[in-house]
Amino acid sequence: MSGSIASYDQLVRQVEALKKENSHLRRELEDNSNHLSKLENETSDMKEVLKHLQGKLEQEARVMVSSGQTEVLDQLKALQMDITSLYNLKFAPEVMSTGRGTEESPPGPASHRDGPGELGRATFRMLEELDRER
Predict the structure, then answer these.
(1) Are 48 and 57 contacting, i.e. CB atoms less than 8 angstroms apart?
(2) Which terminus of the chain is more solvent-facing, meaning fewer CB atoms within 10 Å of its CB: N or C?
(3) What is the pLDDT along the chain (134 residues), one digit of tens a residue?
């Protein structure tokens, strides 16, 4: 009889320990959910800013092309390539750590033959892909 009491007490202790762990995990899940919501809001805000900036850049690029200032456009393309490369370097390990292979990683930077609008659209597509993966 004392063996069954001891096993009952042991079960009660295990249940209490599991309840504590469950409570801890629920708090952690709630914290993570709140953090994710905050990140989603920030991402959404950044995407809106990027859309606005991309529109302005495309408009300025059209003006530059029409006035023959292709030298500045080449510099902008190079800058966009650098930004995209840095973005890929910063976020590629995070994409890989989610268990996805390289076949699902964001596309690389656009080639130099693409126009300035294509470079911005490629960057925007990468951000959208990251948002969908999250």
Answers:
(1) no
(2) N
(3) 567 787 999 999 999 999 999 999 999 999 999 999 999 999 999 988 888 888 888 888 788 777 777 777 677 777 777 777 766 766 655 544 544 444 444 444 444 444 445 556 666 666 667 667 65
Which two structure tokens, joined as six digits, stand for 48? Answer: 């809106």
Q: Are 98 and 133 in contact (CB under 8 A)?
A: yes
Q: How far apart are CA 104 and CA 130, in angstroms?
A: 10
**For residue 50, which of 106, 120, 110 has the smallest C-alpha distance?**
120
Neighbours of 84 (CB within 10 A): 20
What pTM did the predictor assign?
0.42
Residues 6 or more apart in contact with residue 110 via CB below 8 angstroms: 80, 81, 84, 118, 119, 122
**DSSP at 104:** G
Tokens representing residue 49 in the block: 């800013």
Total residues belonging to the chain: 134
